[in-house]
């Protein structure tokens, strides 16, 4: 049985809180990260959010994946990248799962869908969210939480190729060219070009 109720939050807002309950289970979607969504649920979200909606919500939010991306803080370059993907929604969910810091919960995702006026998406996916949450929580001991990184670590990591790059010392790498006997001319040309470019 699914129980959906409105509950007050400390700052006075009312949010929709979802639980699934049976004889043994009570699941709060605030405890489940968006990474818990299975492929079937992500594909269902994509089916509902990928098509472009031309009429905005009453508050002016776009009512498709673009509104979700905008509300989550994805900027123009990310939105342009997402638009080139086979499924912008699936890629957006994947990017959310890889964000540094706290990953949003399923309840927070539903709250954002409500803000962009996509109650239909919430209604159509709520049961799948609850099923995915139940599976995630029952398997939770198998998951290991990664250590958190702060923003300064992210800035330092941008140009690091290996762990040894971190101190800032120049690194040396060996390169090997494997080729068949009949490709000796191409291999020689490749080596010459690399050496002319400063790679020795």
UniProtKB/TrEMBL annotation:
InterPro entries the UniProt entry points to: DEATH-like_dom_sf (IPR011029), Myelin_different_resp_MyD88 (IPR017281)
Coiled coil location: none
GO MF entries: TIR domain binding; Toll-like receptor binding
GO biological process, one term: Toll signaling pathway
Any Gene Ontology CC annotation: plasma membrane
PANTHER family the record matches: MYD88 (PTHR15079), MYELOID DIFFERENTIATION PRIMARY RESPONSE PROTEIN MYD88 (PTHR15079:SF3)
Name of the protein in its database record: Death domain-containing protein
């Amino acid at each position: 049985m699914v129980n959906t109720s409105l509950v007050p939050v400390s700052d006075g807002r009312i949010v929709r809180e979802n639980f699934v309950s049976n004889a043994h289970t009570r699941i709060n979607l605030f405890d489940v990260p968006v990474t818990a969504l299975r492929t079937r649920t992500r594909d269902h979200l994509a089916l509902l959010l990928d098509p472009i909606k031309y009429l905005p919500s009453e508050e002016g939010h776009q009512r498709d994946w673009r509104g979700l991306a905008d509300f989550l803080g994805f900027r123009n370059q990310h939105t342009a990248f997402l638009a080139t993907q086979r499924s912008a929604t699936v890629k957006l969910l994947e990017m959310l799962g890889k964000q540094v810091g706290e990953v949003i919960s399923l309840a927070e995702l539903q709250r954002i869908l409500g803000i962009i006026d996509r109650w239909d998406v919430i209604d159509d996916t709520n049961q799948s969210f609850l099923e995915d949450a139940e599976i995630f929580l029952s398997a939770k001991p198998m998951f290991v939480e990664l250590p958190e990184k702060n923003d300064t670590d992210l800035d330092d990591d941008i140009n690091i190729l290996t762990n040894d790059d971190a101190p800032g010392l120049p690194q040396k790498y060996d390169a090997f060219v494997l080729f068949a006997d009949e490709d000796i001319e191409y291999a020689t040309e490749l080596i010459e070009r690399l050496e002319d470019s400063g790679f020795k």
